[in-house]
Amino acid sequence: MRLFVAVIPPRPVVLELRAALSTLPHDNPRLRWCRPETWHVTLAFFGEVGEDSLDDLKERLGNIIVGYTRDR
After folding, report:
1. pTM for the full model?
2. pLDDT at residue 3 above 90?
3. How far, in Å, CA of 8 to CA of 19, rounded?
């Protein structure tokens, strides 16, 4: 499976971005616009990851999150 780590912006941020982007032309066939409900900021892309690696990956990411929140 293809995996990545991302943060989802809060709704007020999405609404502000949506308003700002609404001023851009949307008729370029080379661009593909996605729904604002799916907007996210990718922090890390892992690509294809086997299921046998999931537990280790979860543990490592959990340790990073705990360390980050502890240091704040």
Report:
1. 0.70
2. yes
3. 17
